[in-house]
Amino acid sequence: MTKCDTLSIDEINSKIEQFLKYLNLEPNSKLEKYGIDSRYKAYGGFNNTPQFIMPISAVSNLNIEPLKYALKDL
Questions:
Q1: Domain that holds residue 52
Q2: Is residue 2 part of a domain?
Q3: Over 90: is that where the pLDDT of 3 sits?
Q4: Which tens digits make up the pLDDT trace of 5-52?
Q5: Which of 25, 27, 42, 71 has the highest count of CB atoms within 10 angstroms of its CB?
Q6: CB atoms within 10 A of CB 24
């Protein structure tokens, strides 16, 4: 999810939970190994689709480095 610097952490987490629920998924901690910001909900699958869902923002540099590492592991 992009442009996550425009909403509060609670609003982003709510949107992520709604999106994951739509996909019949639940947030998990599998992306913590990449150093994601743990204040935000995220999903890492890597054996199923989608591979991962995490909030990002290029403006505030939120989870950009973890995104690079997760993409490298695909």
A1: 9-72
A2: no
A3: no
A4: 899 999 999 999 999 999 999 999 999 999 999 999 999 987 767 899
A5: 42
A6: 6
